[in-house]
Design a protein that fits this description.
The complex is a heterodimer of chains A (about 725) and B (about 220). Chain A is an alpha+beta fold. In chain A, helix 11 (about 230-245) runs antiparallel to helix 13 (about 270-290), helix 14 (about 295-315) runs antiparallel to helix 15 and helix 14 (about 295-315) packs across helix 18 (about 345-360). Chain A is elongated. By secondary structure, chain B is of the alpha/beta class. Chain B has a single domain, classed as Rossmann fold, CATH 3.40.50.300. Helices cover about 30% and strands about 20% of the residues of chain B. Chain B has 5 helices and 6 strands, in the order βαββαβαβαβα. The chains are: A alpha+beta (about 725), B alpha/beta (about 220). At the A-B interface, helix 1, helix 12, helix 13, helix 15 and helix 18 of A face helix 1, helix 2 and helix 3 of B. Chain A: One of its GO terms (molecular function) is guanyl-nucleotide exchange factor activity. Chain A: One of its GO terms (cellular component) is plasma membrane. Chain A: Keywords: Guanine-nucleotide releasing factor.
Chain lengths: ~725, ~220
C-alpha cells in the first residue's frame, strides 16, 4: 500500500492534481517538460473560485480547465538562475532550494555569484533587483561554507570579494552593510564540521584523561554493564542526533564526496564525520567483546546480551544509524564466528537479535515506514522544501491524525528519528551514475541537467526532514558516558579483533582436528585457554596471515592438553563439524607416520606414532616429505628416498606422485588424512621397525625447541 | 533466499551482492546491466539499492536481485548485512588502482570465512577503457581468481564491454551450485562426504548449453 501511494505521488510531484506529461519543449538555452494539468473549480479544490460561483447558481461557470505547466529539465546556468525568479518577481522557493543544494556538482560559487551580479547590474532600479539580492543573501546566509576559502576558515573567497566590489562600485550602502555584517558573523562563528563537533565534544570532557589507567579494558567493559541499556541507547542517540543536525545535506552528493575525499582535506566533510562516528560505534562493540582475553565466558555472554538490548532500545528510539552500527558489528566475522558464545545465549535474546538483523537488512522497507513516522515529528515549516518535501508533507497530513497520537502516547517523549545515512548515499550514487550532469540540445548546446538536480534534491530533502526530526529528542547529555565512549575503552584494530577472536575460540575446523588427535578411548578431553604463553601466541598470531592461524591454534590446544578446562569441554558440544576437519580452503593437516612395513599403519609395540604436518596449497611432495622427516627426527634422510603414501579406507593405498602439489593430489574425501612415508628402495623387513619406541619417545622429548613446541604431536594408543 | 520451487520449469531466485572499493564502477556495471531501470520516465529513486533482472538460461528461468552497496564503502563492518544469504558475489576492482584489487582480496577472505564455498565468486577488473593506466596485470588477477575458485572478467561499464557475460556466467554457476545442493539434499547418505573438498574448482566438462538471455 505504501509503495502504491508513493508511485502515485511521484507521477505528479507538484501536487495531488492530475498531471499528464505532454511534450518536451526545446529552447535555445533550455529544455522544458510540458505537463497538462486539469483544474476543477467545483469540487472544492480551489475554494476561492468555488465560493464565488456558488453565490449565483444560475450563472454558468467554468467547471474545469486544462492548463500547461512547464517544468525546467535542463538549461544553461544563466537560464537556470533567471528561472529562479518568477514572473511576479518573487523567488520561486522550490526551484531555489533545488538549485542551492545541488549547484556545486556543476559549477562554482564564484561563477554563480558572477552571473547573479551581472543580472543585478542589468536589473538596477527595476523590480527584479530585490529578488536577485535576496537570492545572493540566501546563498550567503544558508551556505556560509561556500564563501570561505578552502585553506582557512576565516578567509573569504572570490565570491564574497566580487560581491563587495559590486556593492562599492554601485554605491549600494545597504548591501555593503549587510555584507560586512555577514562576513563578521562568519568569522566570529565558524561553521563546525562533524569531525570538529566530535573533537569539541571530547574536549569539553570535565574528566582529566591522565587520571585514567590506560589499559584497564576490563574496568571499562564493566562500566558498560553497569550502565542501563536504555541509558546507553539514549546517549548514543544524542551523539547521532547532534551529528545529523549538523550534517550539510549537499555534502552527501556523490560528486562532492569524491571531491572532499581526494585532495582538499582542509574542508572536512560532515558526511565523513557521520561515517567516523558510525565506525566508532562498531569499534566499541567489537572492543568491548574482544578486547579482554581474560574475560570469563559468562561476562562476555552478558556483554553480548547487553549490546543486543542496547540495539533494541536504539530501535525504540528510532536511531537507525547506531542500530545498524551495533548490529553489523555483532555480525562482523570476529564476533559472529564465536559460535559457542552465541550458542550460550538465551533463546529470547537470540530471537531478538535475529529480528533486529532482519530489520537492518530489509532497510528499504523500514526506511519507508520510518519516513512516515519520522515525518510526524516534523514542523509544518518544512513545506517549502520543494517537490520532494511537498510529497512528504501530504503524507504528514494524512498520517498525523492516526500516527502521531499513538506514537507519542506509547513511547512518551520520543519523537526524534535518526536514519542510517548510508542508504541515502547509495541512492545518490545511483542517481549520479544513472543520470548525466549535462545534456545537449538539438543544436549541440551543452545544458546543465536540472532534472538530475531535482531528483537529487528529493533525497536531500528527505535528509532535511530527518534533521528537523532529530532536533526533537529530549535527552540530557551525560559527560561520564561520553568519556567512556571516547576514552575509556581501548580500541582494537581489525587485525587485533581477528586475532583475539581466534584466541577466544579457535577455528572450528581445527577444533575438530584436535578432537581427532586427542581422541582416545577415555573420551574427548580438551584444553582451555592457557594464560601462560598467551602473549607469545598473540604475538605470533598477529604476525601471521589470517589464513595461517591454524597451526598455532591447534598447537596451543595441544600444548595444554594436560590441563583441561571443564568449561571449555562443556561448551564444545555445541559446535558441529560438518566437513573434513583437516581441510581448510588453502591448507590441510596430514597425519604422517614412518613406514612400519605393515602397509596400513605403523605399530611400535602397540603404539601408533604419527606427526601432523600442515600442508599449504603450493607445497610439492618433496617439501612435505622433508617436513615430515624432520618432525620424525630424520633430518639426515634424503626425501628423495621416500614415497608419500595415503592410506585410504578399505585398505587401499595411494602413492602421491613425486612432483605433485600435495594439497590437490591427495584424496580429500577421506575422513582422516592418514599417510605413511615409505622408503623407496628399502627391502621389506618385517618386524624390524626403523625406529624403536623407546628411542623415539625420548628423542621427541629432548627436542622440544621453540619450533617443535608449536607443532602438533600426539601419541595415540590404538586399541 | 536460496533457490526455492521444486516444480520442473523451476525459477531460481538468486541474490547477488556487489562489493568493492568506492569509485571502481560497481553502480555503473549494474546499471549498465539492468539498463532500462533508469529511463527518463522512471522517476522513483526509492528501492534503488536493490535492482532486479530476469533472464533465461537454457530452459531455466532466473530472477537476479542485485544488491549494490555503493556509497557505503567507508562504513566499517557493514558487509555482513548485505552479503548474508547471497548466492553470488561480484567483487569489483579498478584496473588502474592496485589498492582496489587488494580490497577485493580482503572481501574474498571475509566471504570465504563467513559463507564458505556456498557462494559463487566473480572478480571483475573494471575500466578496461583506461588500459593505458593499468596498474593490475591480467595475469596477477587471473592467477589470484583461480586460486580462490573465482571467475575473473574484465569489463568496461563505460563502453559496455563484458558486462552481460559477467552476469551470465555467474548465473550459470549459481544454477550449478543450486543443483548440487539439491542433489546433496536428496542423497542424504553419509557417502556424500566425499564432496567436502570445497577447494576443488569444478571444470565444466561439457560445453555450455545454448544461452538465451534478456528481459522477460
Amino acid at each position: 500500500m505504501q509503495s502504491l501511494s508513493n508511485a502515485d505521488t511521484r507521477r505528479s510531484p507538484e501536487n495531488g492534481d492530475h498531471r499528464k506529461y505532454w511534450m518536451e519543449e526545446d529552447g535555445d538555452d533550455a529544455i522544458y517538460g510540458v505537463f497538462l494539468k486539469k483544474i476543477r473549480y467545483r469540487s472544492g479544490c480551489s475554494p476561492s473560485l468555488a465560493v464565488d460561483t456558488s453565490c449565483n447558481e444560475a450563472v454558468s461557470y467554468l467547471e474545469w480547465q486544462t492548463i500547461k505547466v512547464k517544468v525546467l529539465k535542463a538549461a544553461t546556468l544563466d537560464r537556470v538562475l533567471r528561472q529562479l525568479i518568477n514572473d511576479e518577481n518573487e523567488l520561486d522557493s522550490g526551484t531555489v532550494n533545488i538549485f542551492l543544494d545541488t549547484y556545486r556538482e556543476v559549477t562554482t560559487t564564484a561563477a554563480v555569484v558572477t552571473i547573479l551580479l551581472e543580472h543585478l547590474t542589468a536589473a538596477r532600479e527595476t523590480p527584479r533587483e530585490r529578488p536577485i539580492k535576496q537570492l545572493l543573501f540566501t546563498l550567503l546566509e544558508n551556505y556560509p561554507e561556500d564563501f570561505t576559502s578552502h585553506s582557512s576558515r576565516v578567509d573569504v573567497n572570490e565570491a564574497v570579494i566580487k560581491m563587495m566590489e559590486y556593492a562599492e562600485h554601485s554605491q549600494d550602502i545597504d548591501m555593503r552593510y549587510r555584507l560586512i555584517q555577514r562576513i563578521a558573523a562568519m568569522s566570529a562563528q565558524p561553521h563546525l564540521s562533524h569531525l570538529e563537533v566530535l573533537e569539541w565534544i571530547q574536549d569539553s570532557q570535565p574528566v582529566q584523561l591522565t587520571d585514567f589507567p590506560a589499559d584497564d579494558t576490563t574496568a571499562a567493559a564493566q562500566d558498560l554493564l553497569n550502565y542501563g541499556d536504555k541509558f546507553v541507547a539514549e546517549q548514543l542517540t544524542l551523539l547521532d542526533a547532534e551529528l545529523l543536525r549538523r550534517l550539510r545535506p549537499h555534502e552527501c552528493l556523490a560528486n562532492e564526496r569524491l571531491r572532499s575525499t581526494s585532495g582538499n582535506s582542509a574542508r572536512t566533510s560532515t558526511v565523513q564525520g557521520t561515517i567516523c562516528h558510525f565506525n566508532a560505534v562498531c569499534a566499541r562493540v567489537e572492543s568491548s567483546l574482544l578486547g579482554d582475553l581474560n574475560m570469563p565466558n559468562a561476562l562476555r555472554q552478558r556483554m553480548l546480551i547487553k549490546w543486543i538490548d542496547i540495539a533494541h532500545f536504539l530501535f525504540i528510539l528510532k536511531n537507525f544509524s547506531s542500530l545498524t552500527a551495533v548490529i553489523s558489528a555483532l555480525q562482523a566475522e570476529p564476533i559472529f564466528r564465536l559460535k559457542r558464545l552465541w550458542a550460550s545465549l538465551p533463546t529470547e535474546k537470540l530471537g531478538r537479535f535475529k529480528e533486529l538483523v532482519v530489520l537492518c537488512s530489509s532497510d528499504r522497507m523500514a526506511a519507508t515506514n520510518d519516513l512516515q513516522q519520522g515525518v510526524t515529528a516534523t514542523q509544518p515549516s518544512m513545506q517549502n522544501y520543494g517537490a520532494g518535501v511537498k510529497e512528504l508533507s501530504t503524507l504528514k497530513i494524512t498520517k498525523r491524525t492516526g500516527h502521531r497520537r499513538s506514537h507519542s502516547d506509547n513511547t512518551g517523549k520520543v519523537h526524534g528519528m535518526v536514519p542510517y545515512l548510508g542508504k541515502f548515499l547509495t541512492d545518490l550514487v545511483m542517481l549520479d551514475t544513472a543520470l548525466p550532469a549535462h545534456v545537449c540540445t538539438k543544436t549541440g548546446r551543452r545544458l546543465l541537467n536540472f532534472d538530475k538536480c531535482r531528483k537529487e534534491f528529493e533525497i536531500l530533502a528527505q535528509i532535511r526532514l530527518y534533521q528537523s526530526a532529530a532536533a526533537s529528542y529530549l535527552i540530557e547529555p551525560q559527560d561520564h558516558f561520553r568519556f567512556w565512549f571516547y576514552r575509556a575503552l581501548r580500541i582494537l584494530d581489525s587485525e587485533d579483533c581477528f586475532s583475539n577472536s581466534f584466541l577466544i575460540e579457535p577455528p572450528p575446523s581445527l577444533t575438530g582436528s584436535c578432537s581427532e588427535i586427542s581422541d582416545s578411548s577415555e573420551g574427548r578431553k580438551r584444553g582451555g585457554l592457557l594464560s601462560s604463553g598467551l602473549s607469545t601466541l598473540k604475538r605470533m598470531v598477529s604476525q601471521e596471515n589470517l589464513l595461517q592461524y591454524a597451526p598455532l591454534t591447534v598447537s596451543r590446544k595441544n600444548s595444554v592438553s594436560s590441563s583441561q578446562s571443564l568449561d571449555y569441554r562443556r561448551q564444545t558440544k555445541s559446535t558441529t563439524v560438518t566437513k573434513s576437519p583437516y581441510l581448510t580452503d588453502t591448507q590441510c593437516i596430514l597425519k604422517i607416520s614412518l613406514d612400519g612395513n605393515t602397509g596400513s599403519s605403523v605399530f611400535y609395540g602397540g603404539v601408533n606414532l604419527y606427526k601432523s604436518i600442515m600442508v599449504n596449497d603450493s607445497q610439492k611432495t618433496t617439501s612435505v616429505i622433508r617436513a615430515a622427516l624432520d618432525k620424525h627426527d630424520r633430518q639426515h634422510d634424503d626425501p628423495n628416498c621416500y614415497d608419500l603414501v595415503q592410506i585410504l579406507s578399505r585398505d587401499e593405498e595411494f602413492v602421491i606422485p613425486f612432483d605433485a602439489t600435495v594439497f590437490y593430489a591427495i584424496n580429500s574425501g577421506e575422513s582422516e588424512l592418514k599417510f605413511v612415508l615409505r622408503k623407496k628402495t628399502s627391502p621389506f623387513k618385517f618386524g624390524q621397525p626403523p625406529l624403536p619406541k623407546s628411542r623415539s619417545s625420548s628423542k621427541t622429548r629432548s627436542t622440544k625447541d621453540a619450533v617443535n613446541k608449536w607443532s602438533i604431536k600426539s601419541i595415540t594408543r590404538t586399541v | 533466499m536460496a533457490a526455492s520451487a521444486v516444480a520442473s520449469p523451476r525459477v531460481h531466485d538468486f541474490k547477488v551482492v556487489l562489493l568493492g572499493e568506492g569509485c571502481v564502477g560497481k553502480t555503473s556495471l549494474v546499471l549498465r546491466y539492468v539498463e532500462n531501470k533508469f529511463n527518463e520516465k522512471h522517476e522513483s529513486t526509492l528501492q534503488a539499492s536493490f535492482l532486479t533482472k530476469k533472464l533465461t538460461i537454457g530452459n531455466r528461468r532466473v530472477n537476479l536481485s542485485i544488491w549494490d552497496t555503493a556509497g557505503q564503502e567507508r562504513f566499517h563492518a557493514l558487509g555482513p548485512i548485505y552479503y548474508r544469504d547471497s548466492n553470488g558475489a561480484i567483487l569489483t576492482y579498478d584496473i588502474t588502482d592496485d589498492d582496489s584489487f587488494q580490497k577485493v582480496k580482503n572481501w574474498v577472505k571475509e566471504l570465504k570465512k563467513m559463507l564458505g564455498t556456498d557462494i559463487m565468486l566473480t572478480i571483475i577488473g573494471n575500466k578496461t577503457d583506461l588500459e593505458k593506466q593499468r596498474n593490475v596485470s591480467v595475469e596477477t588477477a587471473e592467477q589470484y581468481a583461480e586460486s580462490v575458485g573465482a571467475t575473473h572478467f574484465q569489463t568496461s561499464a563505460k563502453l559496455n564491454r563484458g558486462v552481460e557475460e559477467v552476469f551470465l556466467d555467474l548465473s550459470r554457476r549459481m544454477i550449478e551450485q543450486a543443483d548440487k545442493q539439491d542433489a546433496e539434499k536428496r542423497a542424504l547418505s553419509p557417502s556424500s562426504r566425499s564432496t567436502a573438498a570445497g577447494n576443488v574448482v569444478l571444470l565444466e566438462e561439457t560445453p555450455a548449453a545454448p544461452i538465451k538471455s534478456g528481459c522477460c
